[in-house]
Every structure is written in structure tokens, then in C-alpha cells.
Specification:
- The complex is a heterodimer of chains A (414) and B (249).
- Chain A has 8 helices and 21 strands.
- With 414 residues, chain A is of the alpha/beta class.
- In chain A, strands 3, 4, 6, 7, 9, 10, 12, 14, 16, 18 and 20 form an 11-stranded mixed sheet that branches.
- In chain A, a hairpin with a 2-residue loop joins β1 and β2.
- Chain B has 249 residues and is of the alpha/beta class.
- Chain B has one domain: Rossmann fold.
- Chain B starts with a strand and ends with a helix.
- The relative contact order of chain B is 0.18.
- Classes of the chains: A alpha/beta (414), B alpha/beta (249).
- At the A-B interface, α6 and α7 of A face α2, β7 and α3 of B.
- The structure holds adenosine-5'-triphosphate (ATP) and magnesium ion.
- Adenosine-5'-triphosphate binds next to β2 and α1 of chain B.
Chain lengths: 414, 249
């Protein structure tokens, strides 16, 4: 294969983004990021962790900045789960105070650039930081239970790209559930970064619903820095976008810190979705759990890359990683790359991967009980997903995920 | 109720059923006995519509329906039930939800109103109690981690809730302890009546002491080679299959 062509196209694509950067009066973070992006460009096929996900389709579109024309997003708003909680609505990456309902302790309207925002290490974070216009900073004071906040991104199409940069800080012994929903219509690129800092004995529950338009692109990066006895408890459901990559970097920095990076990717047609995680165990007695389920129909392609790094100091690390794929069509494909880098000697790390089809004996058993084939298939798919969904204890969040899965299934049931 | 005529079936070009003739009238219980590998489970799978079997000839008429033309779920809604020799585990599927989904799917297919959650709970608990099954088995995933005997009892629970017109019990007695055997037999006997028939596949005459059959058939080499009354089971228990098989050959 000739790799020169995509590389040059990548460069052309990067130039397109770069041309939109206007150094005038910009925050120093953006200036620095622009210099990095000018030098490094977009991730390409020669990079080890981008081998399975090629950004070429992104460079086929000439993305533009959102204009100031008013957009009617009532249709997208109507699709949001009905949850009684404060909501922060971004349209094409811009905060919309008129549609939002502000919780206390939130500052908004400016990119947040959290402490772990690393444009020098991640090319997509450099792109985000260079072009970021807006974002939200959520601070939950120590000891406070902030309940649930909805963070919503709506893309309106017209080949815009937007690059919100958010930061969430959970004080010691504090809690927050962030229900993070991305949806939209048409062709656009959503390239968000969210940096989370979870304090001692604090919990951030991060429930993510990626329901972007099927012509859209979703390239997100999450950083979660977790202090002693803190928990970053996340579940990410990927249903939308033509090409999606969710990258999560979780650093367990204090003893007893834990991270749950559970996910489900349900894809059809020509969709491509990539869930890439890097969990860094940097303190003793830390734990990570990842249950990743993929349901792939049509010509869809799912990717899971999970790296677990265990520092020498991180004795008694408990790491669990399981990736499973259910292929509903012979043309669907799953690529899975687990990676363990362990420098401590007293650790418990396990990983596994399975790829299979719906079980014919199980289907027949259900059908002999009178359950029609389509419903039987749906039951088995849900049963397959249940391991990833069951740990979600947030009732409304779980219901929102289930409803989104039902909708997906109605569209894809053959 | 069930009328099978000259039924032949292959698996991968290998002929397993070589011309089965069998009539089970309304309200009767028939037993099928026969050596390992003679085609008993194959017959039950062909009757319930499992894929992978090539029906090459003959017919099976059930309650007026041409069984072999129907989807498995339609056969169930028409009143056919198969208790599996090896019940299938369904990880992630709750037993009570499964049973309620099945019952309501059948009721919908028959144009009957669905049972709401409370009515279903009452029904399933009562039936579980009759089979001496602890309530928690309804809350567990279908057959997952069940012992061999518990799986068989769970099959009978499904039968009791779904109330079929014709139940095929494929070695439901295998793996049951003596008490469980009586309980399961009581479960079947409770359904007996003019509108219920059963085809009981077993290797052991003992079950037939509890579920007394109207007829006993011997299936060997893909054919019914002998039929008789309950005494035939006693004869088989005493003499084995060799004499009968030799006589038929
Ligand atoms: N999927 C298959 N592929 C090939 N041969 C099969 C398959 N299923 C069944 N057979 C064969 O068909 C024959 C009949 O099997 P069947 O399971 O019907 O026997 P059975 O009478 O139920 O035996 P048992 O008393 O041991 O349960 C056997 O020789 C078996 O090996
Ligand atoms: Mg058998």
C-alpha cells in the first residue's frame, strides 16, 4: 500500500484546520497549541495507536468554523432524554445560555484548559486547543453532592467543526454525575476535550451517550486524574457518527483510586468507532475495570485498544479488561488490541477478548417458547450488553442508555 | 392432536429419521423409548422446527396445523412445547422476564390479552411453588448455574406456565433425584386432561410409574419398531432392546 498519499492528504487536511486559526488576541494556550499542531498535524497511519482508525475521511471534508446565523435546534432538544437536572447546552461548540439551565458552581463560556490538557502529547488535543472557542468549568466543592448535570453538544451540520474544551473538578469527598450527550444532524466534526480531576474519596460518574448524526465525526479525548480513594466511574455508549474515536486517559494517582471505563459500541452500515483507553496505575492498591461490548452489523468496524500501565510503585494493582464483540453480519469487523505494561511485581491484571455471533441454540430455545425471531435476537443482544450496562446505578442515566439502545435496535433489526 | 406420517429427515445428508409413523390422540400421553442415538431428540427437534434438519418426506399435522411449514415460535403459539434434553443457558436473561415475554408473545399471537406484571408474578410464583422451586430461581438468569436437576425443573415450570396442548418431554427425568422425579411427574399429571397430550421420551421405566402412559413406542434406527401398552416399558426394562431390534430387522 502506498502510504504517501494519505499522509499528504492528512497534511492538506491539517492545513485546512490551521488556516482557520487566527493568532490575534488569543489565549497563550491556543498559540502554543497552534505551533504544536503546525508541527505535528493530524494522527496518521504510521502511528501505532492510530493503525486501525484512519482519519482520511475527516480530511475529505473541508471543515469551516461555525457562523453566527441562528440555528433551530428544537428538534435535537426534543430528542434529549427527559431528565430533571440542570443542563448545559452547546450548539456547534458554543455555549447557549438561553437554552441552558445553570447549576451552581459552574463557570462557562470560555475554554477550560484543565491541568491535564496535553496538546504536546495528543494531536487531537492540539487541534482542539488551537480552535477551541468555548467550554465549561464545573467545580464541585469538597464534601458536596452536586447531583446530576447534563452536558449536551448539538451539531447542526454544514461542515462545521467545533472543539469545546471542558474541565470538571470534584473536590474531596464530593460527587457528581455528568450525563454527557452528543447528538446532531448533517455533517460536522465534534472534537471535544474534557479534563476531569477527581479529589480524595470523591466520585465522578461520567455517563456518555454518543449519538452524533450518521454523517458526522466524533473525535474526543477525556483525561481523568483520580486522587486517593477517588473513583472515575464511566460508561460510554457509542451509537452515532460515521467515524468516531473516544480516547480516555485515566491516571490513578493515589492509593485505592479506581476507574471504570465501561463501554458499548453499537454500529451498523459503514460506521467505524474506536474506543481507546490508557489507564495509568501510579499508586498502590488501585483498581481499574473495563467491560467493553461491541455489537456490529452491516459493514461496521469496531476498534478497542486498551492499555494498562502499572508503575513500579503501584503494587497490588487490580486491573480487569474484557472486550467482547457480537458480529451480526459477515461483513462486520472488530479489531482489538490489549496492551499491558507492568513494572510492579505484585499485581492482578487480567484481560480477555471474544468475538462471536448470536448463538443459534439460544435463539432456537427462545423461539420454541413462542418468542418471535426479531424479539429473540433483541433479547440476546441486550443480554450481551447487560454486563456493561448493569454497573450503571444512576436510574435516569441507565434508562436513557436503554432507550437509545432500543432506538438503535429498531433501526438495525433485520 | 398429533399425527406424524412417514416422516424422514437428514442431518448433513445422513438420514436419521427413516419413516416415523405416530399418532397421539387428544388427551393421551405416549412414551417413546429407544437406544442412544436412535433419533428421539432428532424427532423432537424436527417437530419444534430447529434449523439444520432437512425434512425429506412425510408430514406432521398438529391440531389441524401443518407443523413442518411453521416457524418455531408459531408452533409454540399453536400449543407445542418442547422440554429440552439439554436446556440452554441464557446469560444476561432474567428467568421471570424470559417466561413473561414468552407467555405474552404466545398470548399476542393467539389474539389473547397480555398478562400484566402482577398477574404474571402470581402465576409464576404459584407454579414454582408447586414444583418446589425456590422463588429466587425466577430471579436468576435462565438456567445459568442451575444444577442438572434444576434445569429440568425449570423446563417443567415453563411448561406449567405456558400450558401447551402438546408437550414433548425429552428425557426430562434424567438427572432428577427421586423426590424431584415425583414432583415433575405431578407437574405433568396436573396438566392431563382432554385438551392436553404429551410425548414422553425416557430411558427409564420408573418415570412411567408416575406418569402412566396410554401407549409406549420403541424408536430404533430412525423408525418406530414396536408399540404397546405400559407393559411394553416393563418388558424393555427387563430384557433390553436387543431382542426387539433383532425381531424388527
Ligand atoms: N448435528 C448433528 N450432526 C451429525 N449427526 C448428528 C447431529 N445431531 C444428531 N446426530 C446423530 O443423529 C443420531 C440421532 O441422535 P439423537 O440425538 O436424535 O438421538 P437420541 O435418540 O436422542 O439419543 P439419546 O438417547 O442418547 O439422547 C445420532 O447418531 C447422532 O449422532
Ligand atoms: Mg436424545
Amino acid at each position: 500500500m502506498n502510504v504517501t498519499l494519505p499522509l499528504s492528504q492528512l497534511q492538506a487536511g491539517a492545513q485546512g484546520f490551521l488556516a482557520r486559526y487566527d493568532a490575534h488576541g488569543m489565549a497563550p494556550q491556543r498559540t502554543e497549541a497552534a505551533a504544536l499542531f503546525a508541527r505535528n498535524g493530524l494522527p496518521g497511519p504510521r502511528e501505532e495507536d492510530w493503525r486501525y482508525s484512519l482519519l482520511r475521511p475527516v480530511t475529505d471534508v473541508r471543515f469551516v468554523s461555525p457562523d453566527d446565523a441562528p440555528r433551530d435546534v428544537s428538534d435535537a432538544l426534543a430528542r434529549l432524554p427527559k431528565i430533571d437536572a440542570p443542563r448545559l447546552i452547546f450548539v456547534d461548540g458554543r455555549f447557549r445560555a438561553d437554552l441552558s439551565d445553570l447549576p451552581a458552581g459552574v463557570t462557562f463560556g470560555a475554554p477550560a484548559y484543565g491541568a491535564s490538557n496535553r496538546p504536546d502529547q495528543h494531536k487531537l488535543v492540539a487541534l482542539n486547543t488551537m480552535l477551541s472557542e468555548d467550554g465549561v468549568t464545573i467545580r464541585v466543592p469538597a464534601g458536596h453532592d452536586a447531583g446530576t448535570i447534563l452536558l449536551v453538544s448539538i451539531g447542526t451540520g454544514n461542515d462545521v467543526s467545533f472543539h469545546p474544551n471542558h474541565a470538571v473538578t470534584i473536590g474531596d469527598n464530593a460527587r457528581l454525575t455528568l450525563l454527557d450527550i452528543a447528538l446532531g444532524d448533517g455533517v460536522y466534526l465534534n472534537n471535544p476535550v474534557l479534563s476531569a480531576t477527581v479529589g480524595g474519596n470523591a466520585t465522578l460518574t461520567h455517563l456518555r451517550l454518543q449519538q452524533e448524526a450518521l454523517g458526522a465525526f466524533h473525535l474526543s479525548t477525556v483525561y481523568a486524574d483520580v486522587a486517593a480513594s477517588g473513583t472515575y466511574d464511566s460508561f460510554a455508549l457509542t451509537l452515532g457518527a460515521r467515524l468516531a474515536r473516544m480516547e480516555v486517559h485515566a491516571d490513578l494517582n493515589g492509593p485505592q483510586a479506581s476507574a471504570h471505563l465501561n463501554a458499548a459500541q453499537l454500529l451498523g452500515g459503514q460506521q467505524h468507532a474506536d474506543f481507546t483507553t490508557v489507564i495509568h496505575h501510579a499508586a498502590p492498591n488501585t483498581a481499574s475495570r473495563q467491560t467493553v461490548k461491541n455489537v456490529l452489523s452491516g459493514h461496521a468496524r469496531g476498534v478497542f485498544q486498551g492499555k494498562i500501565e502499572v508503575d513500579r510503585i503501584a503494587q497490588k494493582t487490580d486491573g480487569y479488561q474484557m472486550n467482547q464483540a457480537l458480529l451480526l453480519s459477515p461483513d462486520a469487523e472488530m479489531d482489538c488490541k490489549p496492551q499491558l505494561e507492568i513494572y510492579a511485581d505484585d499485581v492482578k491484571c487480567s484481560h480477555g477478548a471474544t468475538i462471536g455471533e448470536l448463538d443459534g441454540d439460544q435463539l432456537f430455545y427462545l423461539r420454541t417458547r413462542g418468542i418471535a425471531e426479531a424479539e429473540a435476537r433483541s433479547m440476546l443482544v441486550r443480554a450481551f450488553l447487560s454486563e456493561a450496562l448493569d454497573p450503571i446505578s444512576h436510574v435516569d442515566g441507565r434508562a436513557a442508555m436503554e432507550a437509545a439502545i432500543s432506538l438503535w435496535w429498531d433501526r438495525h433489526a433485520q | 392432536m398429533l399425527e406424524i406420517k412417514n416422516l424422514t429427515a437428514n442431518i448433513d445428508d445422513k438420514t436419521i429419521l427413516k419413516g416415523i409413523d405416530l399418532v397421539v390422540p387428544d388427551g393421551e400421553v405416549h412414551a417413546i423409548m429407544g437406544p442412544n442415538g436412535s433419533g428421539k431428540s432428532t424427532l423432537s427437534y424436527v417437530l419444534s422446527g430447529r434449523e439444520g434438519y432437512d425434512v425429506t418426506g412425510g408430514s406432521a399435522i398438529f391440531d389441524g396445523f401443518d407443523l413442518l411449514e411453521m416457524e418455531p415460535e408459531a408452533r409454540a403459539a399453536a400449543g407445542l412445547f418442547l422440554a429440552f434434553q439439554y436446556p440452554v443457558e441464557l446469560p444476561g436473561v432474567n428467568n421471570a422476564n424470559f417466561l413473561r415475554t414468552a407467555l405474552n408473545a404466545q398470548r399476542r399471537a393467539r389474539g389473547e390479552p397480555e398478562l400484566d406484571a402482577i398477574a404474571f408474578l402470581k402465576l409464576s410464583r404459584a407454579e414454582a411453588k408447586r414444583l418446589s422451586m425456590p422463588d429466587d430461581m425466577l430471579k436468576r438468569n435462565v438456567n445459568v448455574g442451575f444444577s442438572g436437576g434444576e434445569k429440568k425443573r425449570n423446563e417443567v415450570l415453563q411448561m406449567a406456565v405456558l400450558r401447551p396442548k402438546l408437550a414433548i418431554l425429552d428425557e426430562t427425568d434424567s438427572g432428577l433425584d427421586i423426590d424431584a422425579l415425583k414432583i415433575v411427574a405431578d407437574g405433568v399429571n396436573a396438566l392431563r386432561g382432554p385438551k392436553f397430550s404429551a410425548l414422553v421420551i425416557t430411558h427409564y421405566q420408573r418415570l412411567l410409574d408416575y406418569i402412566v402412559p396410554d401407549r409406549v413406542h420403541v424408536l430404533a434406527g430412525g423408525r418406530i419398531i414396536r408399540s404397546g401398552g405400559p407393559e411394553l416399558a416393563h418388558q424393555l426394562e427387563a430384557d433390553g432392546y436387543a431382542a426387539i431390534v433383532a425381531e424388527a430387522a
